[in-house]
Amino acid sequence: MTNVRRVQEPDAHSASGPAPSRSAGKPAELVVIAVAEDDDELRWLLCDAFQQRGWRVIELEDTSELDDYFEFVERHGAPPGLPDVVLSDLRMPGGSGLDALARARANGVTCPFVVLTAFPEWEVESRILKLGNATMVSKPAKLADVAKVIEAVTKR
Questions:
Q1: CB 3.0 to 4.6 Å from 83: which of 34, 48, 79, 114, for a disulfide?
Q2: Residue numbers of the chain with a pLDDT score lower than 50
């Protein structure tokens, strides 16, 4: 199994206000987001920005690590458990975010997915939407816009 890079705890001093959670009664600072992105610099930028919003961040390098994470949580129930939302790149070495979404759904994972892509194609977006509780965001995208999408899907 591939190692998960890190789980970042929210920094209370840099949090820019509460982040919404889709779970009723769950404190906003406990929102957990899994970020699967093969571009190291973009992944670090996203993870740091989300941590500053007060979200717990699970940093994953690719879909293999995302699959391993879901499998580990399913077998061991390890904290922080399933994420409230997954942000995944579409095209990565070892598999696509679309394939990871399909496998997650086949295994009963129902949390929202946001798929980032530099290659927005209608057919891909249609497949993502058919898998349910998922949306696509085109790159390049502003961090604030990605965060708004994350906030919207966690409110559902």
A1: 34
A2: 1-26, 29
